[in-house]
Design a protein that fits this description.
The two termini are 32 Å apart. The longest helix has 30 residues. Helices cover 43% and strands 17% of the residues. Strand 3 and strand 4 form a beta hairpin. With 383 residues, it is of the alpha+beta class. The strands form three sheets. The protein has a five-stranded antiparallel sheet with strand order 8-9-7-10-11. Strands 5-4-3-6 form a four-stranded mixed sheet. The protein has a two-stranded antiparallel sheet with strand order 1-2. The protein is elongated, with a radius of gyration of 23 Å. The protein has 13 helices and eleven strands.
């Protein structure tokens, strides 16, 4: 039975990263000879970026944060409760979950307070901001930057010794995924460094492969599905590449063209790898204006059209079928339509060749023609 899949409906992440080209020999979950870590093997959470706190309640240790937060007595008490929890006796996975839940619950309220401090003081006083940043990281918060400016908070590694000692393999993988996902956030262009999410994919794929029915995979499923789809939904405009839809604008859609190559090199044996091998051979390509030919396999309308479209694409990718694009347009009646698309081109001959190829797998595939104006707006749709 095909697995149930949910998706994030918004993408607020801003992305910057560097690439690790090491091959990861992950196997699909139907293959008993996998490289997924066994129960007897230990996953150690990376501690290289963790700054340990000897006493999180010691104001000398969190002097700058205490000064920023003390004016708000209710929130400051909640913050103090969390730092006390970090320094408490932790001897079980349940206690680790409690502490990390408290950390995660703080993020939404702490972020605007840190943002206000950065805007008023930290941006111009770098030495002071560096102290604040160090304190944040020491207690499990990762400052996110865009164009060199603070924009958000996310998760940073914390309690690593306790996690390695008391957490189950599946829980460690969930934590590892979240830490790697957070580390990939930031940068000037949201999609310019998609390959930095490869570390998150590595941890997420092990959960997907081995612990799919557990709460640990369900907790990261949305983000895992999101990055898989974003790895694949890339098209060319001339010598440049762009993420998603029919976009041609550099901001925020500029993306690296070599993601398929990098993915295949690092992850040669996942269930998704055949998709990226096909993308290495043939990627969608448009000029950005004029007529565009979509090779469509499925059409979705209604309130849940986007969810249904992305679900279908992920389902097909999981089978190794390279349907990789979700394209949203308004039809001639002004209603939103989402197409699951195999490829799209400005060249009609390429579109017809692609149609003949995919019809061997999905017989209902068809070409939908979009007539675009110079601004990239759809003027007419021909089915």
């Amino acid at each position: 039975m095909m697995k149930t899949i949910t998706f994030l409906m918004s993408f607020s992440a801003i992305i910057l990263f560097s690439c690790n080209n090491t091959s990861e020999n992950s196997e699909d979950k139907n293959n008993s000879d996998t490289s997924v870590i066994t129960e007897n093997q230990k996953i150690n959470i990376d501690t290289t970026q963790v700054i340990e706190t000897k006493d999180p309640e010691d104001e000398n240790n969190l002097k700058e944060l205490s000064g920023i937060l003390k004016d708000n007595s209710n929130f400051y008490k909640t913050f103090q409760d969390y730092t006390k929890m970090l320094n408490s006796e932790i001897t079980s996975e349940d206690k680790i979950k409690t502490v990390l839940k408290a950390r995660n619950n703080l993020i939404s309220d702490l972020t605007p307070k840190i943002d206000n401090f950065y805007s008023s003081t930290g941006e111009t006083n770098q030495d002071l901001w560096n102290k604040v940043e160090k304190e944040l990281v020491s207690i499990g918060f990762n400052p996110i930057y865009a164009e060199g400016m603070f924009v958000d908070l996310d998760k940073a590694p914390v309690l690593t010794d306790k996690i390695n000692k008391y957490a189950s393999e599946a829980f460690r993988l969930e934590i590892e995924f979240n830490n790697n996902y957070s580390k990939a956030l930031g940068g000037e262009y949201p999609y310019a460094g998609l390959q930095d999410y490869f570390d998150a994919f590595k941890s997420g794929y092990k959960l997907f492969n081995k612990y799919f029915e557990t709460e640990y995979y369900k907790n990261i499923e949305d983000k895992f599905n999101e990055i898989v789809l974003e790895f694949a939904d890339i098209h060319k405009v001339g010598n440049e590449c762009f993420e998603g839809g029919l976009h041609t604008e550099y901001y925020p859609w500029s993306a690296p063209c070599n993601i398929p190559e990098l993915f295949v090199k690092r992850f040669p044996n996942t269930v998704f790898t055949p998709v990226f091998k096909e993308l290495q051979k043939d990627m969608s390509e448009i000029t950005g204006k004029g007529t565009i030919y979509l090779v469509v396999t499925n059409t979705f309308e209604g309130n849940d059209a986007l969810t249904s479209c992305r679900y279908k694409i992920f389902e097909l990718m999981e089978k190794g079928i390279d349907i990789v694009h979700s394209v949203n347009i308004k039809n001639n009646d002004g209603k939103n339509i989402y197409f699951a698309v195999y490829r799209f081109y400005s060249d009609k001959n390429k579109a017809e060749d692609a149609l003949n190829k995919i019809k061997k797998i999905i017989n209902d595939a068809k070409i939908v023609t979009l007539n675009m104006d110079e601004n990239g707006t759809v003027k007419e749709i021909q089915h």
